[in-house]
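Running this now, will post back.
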Amino acid sequence: LAARQQSLEIAQAIEHPQWIAGGHIFLGQMYTELLALAEAAAHLQEGLTLAQQIGSSWFSWVGAGSLASLYIWQGDLNAAEKLLADTPETWQPSLFAVRFAQIELALVRQDGDKMLQLLQDILTLAGPPDVPIGAQSYLKGHALTLQGQALALQGRWAEAESVLRQVVSLYETHNIAYHRLWRVYLALGETYQAASQAERAAEAFNTARTHIETLASAIEDNALADNFRRRAIAMIPTAPSLTPRQAAKQEFGGLTRRERQVAAVIAQGLSNQDIADELVVSVKTIEAHVTRILSKLGFSSRAQIAAWAVDRGLASAPPDLDSLSSDKLTSLQ
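Update: finished.
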């Protein structure tokens, strides 16, 4: 932010109108990222007006697209549409900001088909993100985030997750656009929530909150930091209440009801065959349950499972945990 402000001041000092227009637009984009919408609007409007006055097509289009995106953030879709209507209809790379705004408008209207159609040109322009190259990686990351959201709108949950995870990898591997990670995790959480995966949604939303807090703590202006934190956190949906079954699973290390039953019987010192007889299932089924229990709880022995079951109130303590001798710790393979 400080660098953007300094760039604008230098442009003003040397009275370079095109750079002044660009300085206002870039500063407005930065304020938009920080959710300081009033400040963003002031700079974007001033930059766009100056760009149009001096006949700078590139800055006019970047300014128009950025201001339209801001209007969408503010919920003023009519203003965004009106602004976009004055931009060229034929695609060219210089219209990337305009195209992003058009895609964001389709997102708000939950039109996944239109989003994917509009994304084709930008995804082709950005190319593979093997090596971070300036704006190319920024374009790729933002485009892929929108693609993931479009796929989620179509109910293509697995594809949406894969694309959004690719964005996380792009940003983290190349250490670029780190300030956008919270939005990616927000999109991931919304995808999981729409797919009825409450636990994964909660995890993604918590990660988004962590990134929001990290970014807010790096903002030197306290008022700006507080505003960003408040607005960003407000965008995270409230997690729905867990069902009794989900709550129990969360409380007991992710174990299912049947796995909890098996853990409780293990605490009694029974072998796999004994457990299978008691629960009326095959020995192989019990072996599979035990293997999953060990994996979920991070344990390496049945004695640990027994101690855990007793500690969690799933079973009473046996006379001696050492009674779970090797002859009863049957092979798990």
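Residues 132 and 173 are 10 Å apart (CA to CA). More later if anyone needs it.
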